[in-house]
Amino acid sequence: MLNFNLHTTTEIVFGKDIEEQIGPRLKELGVHRILVHFGGSSARTTGLLDRVEKSLFAAGLAFVELGGVSPNPKVSLVRKGIALAEREGIDFVLAVGGGSVIDSAKAIAMGVATKTDPWQFASTGTKPDTTLPVGTVLTLAASGSESSNSCVLTNEETKEKRGITSETNRPLISFLDPENTYTVSKFQTGCGIVDIMMHTLERYLTPEGGESDITDRIAEGLLIAVRDAGRRAIANPRDYEARASLMWAGSVSHNDYTGCGRKRLFPVHKLEHELSAFRDEIAHGAGLSVLFPAWALYEMKNDFPRFAQLANRVFGVEMDFHHPERTAREGILTMKRFFEEIGMPTHLTQLGIKPENYAQLAANTVRTVKGPVKSYSALDEQAIIEIYKLAE
Ligand code: NZQ
Ligand code: ZN
Q1: ipTM score over 0.90, yes or no
Q2: pLDDT tens for residues 134-147?
Q3: What domains does the chain contain, in order, with CATH numbers?
Q4: CA of 198 to the centre of ligand 2 (A)
Q5: The pTM is what?
Q6: CB contact burial 155-180 (16+ within 10 A = b; e otherwise)
Q7: Does the Cβ of 275 fall within 6 Å of ligand 1?
């Protein structure tokens, strides 16, 4: 197990009917003027936005609204949000939505506090050292942004999607009511299941970390719970316990708890962000469900025992000690079948990506990360193209 420093600072308020606590709790936290930030339409049509604003109003808190965040949130709306927040003297940004709304809120908060355009951080890899406090009312179990230290933005002019990782990005408080996810479509539920699993798998399948048995067992438990709850939530979107498991797993999976003592590299995410940047219609979870099995088949040769352990403990594949490569491969194929069972794509063609796009996508990826993508092996352009071929 490697040395680690875990500091997950977000207060979590979890359960049914917690919206009425939002106003009073924010008041206790010393908040005065709030920017309520949301997405396209779901927060309003479900009535959640009304309930949140009612709670703020009842607590005597002033707020202004900014809606319109699209999936793969755009830096142009972030800039509008910064200007609005400065004009209105905002001291707190409250995101009501999924990962895209939360990341947009994080970027507005950092832009106001640092007086720097957030794309400056994204494009140079520098970290903001301060922010306005951010709160979230989560509506989709997926990204883990409600307690993570990252913020992912898209620049629609340059067609680039980049992350900003900084401890200042962790929200101050997140309100997690599983009932707010009942209306999430089957497809977005599937995307969320994949993303939650990937945040733990990207910490589990890494070259450094030794035995780390406690971390492995926590990770494996989470993966099993998400697999089972995922099946139930897809079959019955109003299954409270299943939605609750997914919601809590989403936060735990990306607040660093499932990766203690292991090196964090996130190669599949780096490959995926390039797909979503290339075609804005590609949902993050859908890109991951296509790329993960291909990446795993390409990389398993570098650590057959670890891929075999995953296959055996999480997917019940019988361990072949003489041929761990067989167990490893069967585990990856079982996981691919699971993604298909929950309605997720597993082929690049399903995302509208064709062989003639491979060279450009691979070149974009290497340019974005400024060199080969760190993984078990260093993934250069040729290796990335090989992975695309395995995902055809
Ligand atoms: O815009 P609305 O109308 O709200 O519709 C959204 C959107 O179309 C809809 N939705 C959300 N909650 C709903 C709902 N529909 C019905 N009922 C509800 N309760 O779902 C669609 C997708 O929303 P989005 O926020 O884009 O999804 P997600 O939460 O998966 O976030 C994806 C973004 O997060 C980034 C991804 O790259 C992507 O940009 N990530 C952020 C991370 C972080 N900050 O830590 C880590 C992740 O790895 C990820 O990269
Ligand atoms: Zn993700």
Answers
A1: yes
A2: 999 999 999 999 99
A3: 11-180 (3.40.50.1970), 187-390 (1.20.1090.10)
A4: 6
A5: 0.98
A6: beeeebbbbbebebbbbbbbbbbbbb
A7: no
